[in-house]
Design goal:
The structure holds two protein chains of two kinds.
Chain A: E1 10-11, E2 17-21, H1 25-37, E3 42-46, H2 49-58, E4 63-67, H3 75-85, E5 95-99, H4 104-112, E6 117-120, H5 125-136, E7 142-144, E8 149-151, H6 186-193
Parallel strand pairs in A: 2-3, 2-4, 4-5, 5-6
Antiparallel strand pairs in A: 7-8
Chain B: E1 5-7, H1 12-17, E2 23-24, H2 25-37, H3 40-60, H4 66-80, H5 86-104, H6 110-125, H7 132-149
Helix pairs in contact in B: 3-4, 3-6, 4-5, 5-6, 5-7, 6-7
The chains are: A alpha/beta, B mainly alpha.
Chain lengths: ~200, ~150
């Protein structure tokens, strides 16, 4: 197993509801079996993104796994709808997109749709579990602007969450570490805030 | 919407996964891998059937079916991508790239499709093992792909 997830670390997906969307029933069943193995007890399977839109309008889910290429409404359009027009309670839901072959025309769509992750096959249970755990610790802010709604794509500033493989020396973190000194007293703080005359 | 707004979101997934309980990552992976393996036989059968559909399309050489060739190739790749299919996955990916590229640049070439299908058949017949023969086949497909998509 990769260093990214320690074999003894606990993964708790028992209370999470997953929405799985794929127009290929066999692929949908395979995906369902994998996440069941992860311990997911409640999963909703949809054979189309259009069907999934109906589900999202009716009830909240905790994580969405969706195939990119589907007829009528593809995975990219679904995520774009979710982020921009979906119910407010669902619009920040983490979304993992799965793709086999990405046609060049789909590359920009995938970049701009607002998915949390895009996983290119071959897909192994390890890769999928790593991404789910990563999302549960995701530090990225959400961005809303004219041309994009979704997690901050400037991931290089933050890198993977703390404690996971792949972090680089310069990666930032929003984690506040444990205090290593005693708290400053109020007079010290006041001194720092006090205007001081300086000679230029 | 003017300008960009950034904000922090705590998702219900993060909240629920941070609670005590669940199973170890090792147990989760073992269970998922076992469940995945339960689908292997049926998936391999579907791969064979999809390859047969592609062979029928190539035999008919109907130029209205270029899109269908890509769709079937993508379906092959999607399913192969769940399992350790090594050279089969690579050959299917090459077929997707080649058919998509030829479709885009308007220079469809059926023999390039056929050579991919022959390679896929050989790899499937050899249980998707990575061998010297499969490496040679993939090198040949890479040459075809390069030549046929260069104009794109």
């Amino acid at each position: 197993m990769s260093r990214a997830i320690h074999p003894d670390s606990r993964v708790n997906l028992e209370r999470s509801t997953l929405l799985l969307i794929d127009d290929n029933p066999q692929a949908l069943d395979i995906l369902s079996s994998i996440v069941h193995g992860f311990g997911v007890k409640e999963q909703i399977k949809c054979a189309s993104a259009v069907e999934a839109v109906g589900v999202i309008k009716r009830r909240p889910v905790d994580l969405i796994l969706i195939d990119c290429a589907m007829p009528e409404m593809d995975g990219y359009d679904f995520v774009r709808w979710l982020r921009r027009e979906g119910p407010k309670s669902a619009s920040y839901t983490p979304v993992i997109m799965l793709t086999g072959h990405a046609a060049p025309s789909a590359v920009q769509k995938s970049r701009d749709c607002g998915a949390s992750f895009i996983i290119a096959k071959p897909l192994t249970p390890l890769v999928l579990l790593q991404r789910i755990v990563w999302l549960s610790r995701d530090e990225r802010e959400f961005v809303e602007c004219e041309t994009y709604v979704g997690p901050d794509r400037r991931v290089r500033n933050y890198g993977p969450p703390l404690g996971m493989a792949g972090r680089r020396k310069g990666d930032l973190s929003t984690h506040v570490g444990a205090a290593i000194q005693e708290n400053m007293d109020q007079s010290e703080i006041d001194m720092m805030m006090k205007p001081v005359k300086v000679s230029l | 919407m003017t300008g960009a707004r950034t904000f922090r979101v705590t998702t219900s997934l993060a909240d629920k996964m941070s609670r005590p309980g669940g199973r170890t990552a090792a147990a989760a992976l073992t269970a998922a891998t076992t469940a995945l393996e339960g689908h292997r036989e049926a998936a391999m059968q579907t791969l064979v059937e999809t390859l047969e559909q592609l062979q029928a399309l190539a035999a008919a050489r109907d130029d209205a079916e270029h899109g269908q060739v890509y769709e079937r190739a993508a379906a092959l790749l999607d399913l192969a991508g769940f399992f350790e299919t090594g050279p089969l996955y690579d050959a299917a990916y090459s077929l997707c790239e080649t058919s998509d590229g030829m479709r885009d640049n308007g220079a469809w070439h059926w023999p390039s499709i056929e050579v991919h299908l022959q390679a896929l058949g050989l790899i499937l017949a050899d249980d998707c093992r990575e061998t010297e023969a499969s490496r040679t086949l993939l090198e040949g497909l890479a040459g075809v792909r390069e030549r046929r998509t260069r104009r794109a």
